[in-house]
Amino acid sequence: MAKVLSLGGVFFKSKDPEALGKWYQEHLGMQIDPSFGGCVFMPDQMPNKGYNIWTPFKHDTKYLDPSSSPFMINLIVDDIDGAIAQVKAAGADIHDEVQRTEFGAFGWFSDPDGNKIELWQPDAIAEPDGG
């Protein structure tokens, strides 16, 4: 039987994809490739203890609130506090305080399209010696 090997991408609709891509490039340093219209993350860029996850939630979950989108995007960052400060300065709505768990640090915001975005800094990056 054929099997899935990894997450291949996240694709979604936007009223202004070019503007949204520029916003992410300017405020989170994502390198937008015009030939794709998005950002390509190569496997060797994945930090230690980083991984991709695919998880369906129940239809009535509140975890994706306040977004009305039926999805949430999780982005791995190298500095959770810096990334939250950057998107806040850019006018993003911040949701909750940064939470530090055994899996690393997590923070949430809504992007200019109203999508809920989860930022994740894995433990290996957050370790005092730099992991």
Give me the secondary-structure topology.
Blueprint (H helix, E strand, L loop, with lengths): L16 H12 L3 E2 L4 E2 L32 E5 L3 H10 L3 E9 L2 E7 L5 E7 H4 L5
Parallel strand pairs: 3-6
Antiparallel strand pairs: 1-2, 4-5, 5-6
Summarize this structure briefly.
The protein has 131 residues and is an alpha+beta fold. It has three helices and six strands; from the N terminus they run H-E-E-E-H-E-E-E-H. It is globular, with a radius of gyration of 15 Å.
Query: Kindly state the mean pLDDT as a whole number?
Result: 89
Q: State the secondary-structure class.
A: alpha+beta
Give the total of beta strands: 6
Q: Note the total helix count.
A: 3
> What oligomeric arrangement do these chains adopt?
single chain
- Taking the alpha carbons of the first and last residues, their distance comes to 38 Å
| Order of helical and strand elements | HEEEHEEEH
Shape: globular
Q: Note the main sheet.
A: 4 strands, mixed
Low-pLDDT residue spans: 126-131
Helix content: 10-25%
Q: Can you characterise this structure?
A:
This protein is α+β, with helices and mostly antiparallel strands. Helices cover 20% and strands 24% of the residues. It has a four-stranded mixed beta sheet. A two-stranded antiparallel ribbon has the order 1-2. A hairpin with a 5-residue loop joins strand 5 (104-110) and strand 6. The longest helix has 12 residues, at 17-28. The chain is globular, with a radius of gyration of 15 Å. The chain starts with 16 loop residues before the first helix and ends in a 5-residue tail after the last helix.
